[in-house]
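Hey, can you fold this one?
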Amino acid sequence: MTTKANIKHYGFNNKKFTFDRKKFSLIIPFLILTLLLVVVPLVFVFVKSFIPVEGYGVDENFNFMFNDGYIFGKIFLSIFVAIVATIFCIILAYPFTYILSQAKNKLFQTIIILVATAPIWTSFLVKLVGLKTFFDVMYGYKNSTFGIIFTIIGLVYLYIPFMLAPLYTSLVNMPKNLIWASYDMGHGPITTFFKVILPYTFAALMSGITLVFLPSVTTVAVPQFLNSSSDGNLIGDIIVNEGSIAQTSEIALARVSSLSMVLLLILTIGYVGIVYGKKLYKYVMNRIKEKRLESC
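Sure. Predicted structure:
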């Protein structure tokens, strides 16, 4: 049991919160791992980005990204491909998990969800080779996959289990009386989905989007395997190629560090824009409603 001696109360903006020493001690190993495996590498990458290499200025660490627009083109192409792949994962996973969650046979649900998430269990490389072989057999010749669409197909195939798992867990635990109550109020299936199901599963949906989108942006090998075009690589492949050169070249290490920082900055700005853009939208809409009420 937690004693009062282990709990401290703090006040902030007229709100109280407690600090439990015993509970905090349980997350110390996680904090240490986060510090060693996330914070320290990020600091190293940041420092390398702004340290001049002998014979080059700091500007040379970044100039290669601005010379012809090639790198930024690949960054935004990678983001576009990741967004499309994430949308397809949502379109495929939502109805599948919802219908499956309505099944009455629990054994059937378990078997189907295990089969649907089976790609997680196998090697990343084996899955790519299998998908590539499938397309080659279907078209009747080797290296038959040309175009970004095959990269998107590959990303959906590889990462859709990460969308299925959180959505299924949320939907299967959703109280059925919420849906029945919506129908009793006269709402149809579409209204019920947007007013009941979507809000209830929103946290799971955001988890799935994060688990699909972020790996898709920086994916490696998928474009090289599934897009036989001469310029089918994405930003993750460029980072890996530069990183391999960086093992023996200081300027390459500085450049790949700066590229990683710029990519992180773009993703962070996008995330902040989405989060605070939603809050700003709600604030503006509330202000509009208030002014309408005042004018009445």
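The beta strands are 7-12, 15-20. Let me know if you want another pass with a different chain boundary.
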